[in-house]
Amino acid sequence: KNTRIKLNDGLTMPVVALGVWQSHEGTKNAVLTALKNGYRHIDTAAVYHNEKAVGEAIKESGIPRNEIFVTTKLWNDDVRSGNTREALKKSLENLGLDYVDLYLIHWPAEGYVEAYLEMEKLQKEGLTRSIGVSNFRKSHLQNLLSKVHIVPSINQIETNPQMVDEETIQYCKENKIGVEAWSPLGSGACLNNPKIQEIANKYQKSSAQIILRWLLQKGIVILPKSVHENRIKENIDLFNFVLENEDVELINQLNQHKRTGPDPDNFDF
Ligand code: A2P
Question: 0.95 cut: is pTM over it?
Answer without folding.
Answer: yes
